[in-house]
Write a structure and sequence with these properties.
By secondary structure, the chain is α/β, with parallel strands linked by helices. The protein folds into 3 domains: 114 residues, no CATH class; 278 residues, Rossmann fold (3-Layer(aba) Sandwich), CATH 3.40.50; 82 residues, no CATH class. The chain has 14 helices and 19 strands. The strands form 2 sheets. A 12-stranded mixed beta sheet has the order 9-8-19-18-17-10-16-15-11-14-12-13. A hairpin with a 2-residue loop joins strand 3 and strand 4. Helix 4 packs antiparallel against helix 8, helix 5 crosses helix 6 and helix 6 runs antiparallel to helix 7. The longest helix has 21 residues. It starts with a strand and ends with a helix.
Length: 517
């Protein structure tokens, strides 16, 4: 094989620069290799070391404006390419060399077979085909499902492809394993995943879409649809207070906690109307002279709480009999919690409640014979996992992401504003799939949160195209630039094509105009 170029200037065990012809096709994030005499344990071995192209430029020492005008100088042009060392393979592991490439060493373009060996995947860690190398579409990059025990953050600017990537990962989990997936879907991006991209049903896994009572239904959904029935009987007073969407005073929290405790002690099913009835009963209690027992500030607290609970009843329905959370955890089933169309506060509250319910269920069922791990995807994570989302939401998600993996709860946070995610929550995310991000605060947060996300990788983020991502963490063999593979299921979160819509509307207007004559 003809060398691509030769090592020049200073080289180290971590990177080197090589010179190549101006005509040689080489691009950022492509891969090359160089042979070295590696020294390990006092022994010398000849190794082929893989390296990634991280910088390149063209140069011509004679190319001035005057010379270009007067004579041909193109023959003196060349490229200078900087490559960062990945390592060499030894017993299936990637090992860093201890020596630098020698000056003038030939550099070769890594062929597909050699390159794929670095991204072969480990069977017992369940490799999934979600993406391919950015410049080598035939080289699949495995995402190891087992390593989602360290959780995953999918971060990107709006319309950069984060929901499409998440959907690809979801379908790979469901097609290749029996494990259930739950998605907290804020914008109805995943409600059509029972279909192929052409609109036909696939049958590879089950899809059930859950709507909170009174939530608007999504038009065109062909998957099974059910109501998300949550009962106050299974909610903590904090969860119910979060659904109210307002900050309760300490005294009001005590009142609500006392009423829930009383109703639960009766060991009968109860709903929101029963909670309201209890407060109304307290307000209507009188003494022997017919005067209300509750007076002054205490009465005002009860009345305010009653108003808020009645307002909540207009937005959502909390019936006496709620669903069992195990209903969401059926094998080979995608359960989509569709919160589209609800007020932000109600969406955030439902999301927090679902996280808490799933975590408690996993903890209580850890030793059961039919224990089932679950993969939970949370859209708009910067809202419910931020300090602004309220103490209950942050505590719930923080506990789940800190302790969930040992109980089989693997969490994926999806967000366009990672800077708003609580630092304690983000510190427990070990894997990153990051797409185009231009905001420097977001870049800084990611760099500080991840030990593996180098500044060089951060600098690449603004230049990524839609669907391209940087994957970092134990779920991939090494930090890598990829492009998401084509989905096998329908993606509902697509921006409307204005040109197509305009054409359809114009045709309809033209047809209506002709019908007049």
């Amino acid at each position: 094989m003809e060398p691509l170029g030769r090592v020049i200037e200073e080289s180290t065990p971590f990177r080197f620069v090589f010179k190549t012809s101006i005509d040689n096709p080489i691009a950022l994030h492509d891969y090359v290799y160089v042979e070295i005499n590696n020294v390990e344990d006092g022994r010398v071995s000849r190794e082929r070391v893989l390296a990634e192209v991280i910088d390149l430029g063209s140069k011509n020492p004679l190319a001035t404006e005057k010379l270009v005008a007067e004579q041909q100088v193109a023959t003196y042009s060349y490229k200078l390419v900087t490559a960062e060392v990945v390592g060499y393979l030894k017993d299936g592991r990637i090992v860093r060399p201890k020596v630098a490439p020698d000056p003038n060493s030939p550099v070769y373009k890594a062929d597909d077979e050699f390159l794929q060996a670095f991204f072969s995947g480990v069977d017992n860690r369940i490799p999934l085909k979600v993406a391919a190398l950015l410049n080598r579409p035939r080289i699949s990059v495995p995402i190891h499902l087992q390593d989602l025990q360290f959780h995953l953050g999918i971060f990107a600017a709006t319309r950069a492809g984060k929901s499409y990537f998440a959907g690809k990962l979801i379908e790979e989990i469901l097609i290749n394993t029996p494990f259930p997936v739950v998605v907290i879907d804020i914008h109805a991006d995943y409600v059509m995943m029972d279909r192929k991209p052409d609109g036909t049903k696939h049958g590879d896994f089950n899809v059930v879409v859950y709507y909170p009572p009174k939530a608007p239904r999504i038009s065109g959904v062909t998957a099974e649809q059910r109501e998300l029935q949550l009962s106050p009987e299974k909610l903590t007073h904090e969860a119910l207070a979060t659904l109210l969407g307002v900050t309760l005073g300490e005294r009001q929290r005590i009142i609500l906690r006392r009423i829930l405790k009383k109703l639960k002690s009766e060991r009968k099913a109860f709903g929101l109307n029963d909670v309201i009835a209890q407060i109304t009963e307290e307000l209507n209690k009188t003494d022997e002279n017919g005067k209300y027992l509750l007076k002054g500030n205490e009465r005002a607290r009860y009345e305010s709480l009653l108003d808020r609970l009645e307002d909540l009843g207009e937005d959502v329905s909390l019936p006496p009999t709620g669903m069992d959370v195990s209903e969401l955890l059926q094998p080979k089933t995608l359960s989509v919690i569709c919160l589209n169309g609800l007020r932000s506060k109600v969406q955030d509250a439902y999301a927090s409640i679902i996280v808490e319910m799933l975590f408690k269920h996993q903890v209580s069922s850890k030793d059961e014979k039919n224990f089932m791990p679950v993969f939970l995807f949370i859209e708009e994570a910067h809202r419910i996992a931020s300090g602004e989302g309220g103490g209950y939401a942050v505590r719930t998600i923080s506990t789940a992401i800190r302790e969930g993996s040992k109980f089989g709860l693997f969490i994926v946070l999806i967000s366009q504003r990672p800077r708003n995610i609580d630092p304690d929550i983000l510190s427990n995310v070990g894997n990153y799939a990051v797409m185009r991000i231009t905001n420097q605060q977001d870049q800084s947060v990611i760099e500080n949160a991840s030990e593996s996300f180098s500044h060089r990788l951060i600098e690449d983020l603004p230049g990524l195209n839609q669907g391209e991502a940087v994957l970092v963490g134990p779920f991939v063999p090494l930090p890598v630039h990829v492009k998401t593979l084509e989905r096998k299921t329908m993606h509902h979160g697509v921006t409307p094509e204005l040109n197509v819509l305009m054409k359809r509307i114009n045709e309809a207007l033209e047809k209506r105009e002709k019908s007049r004559w």
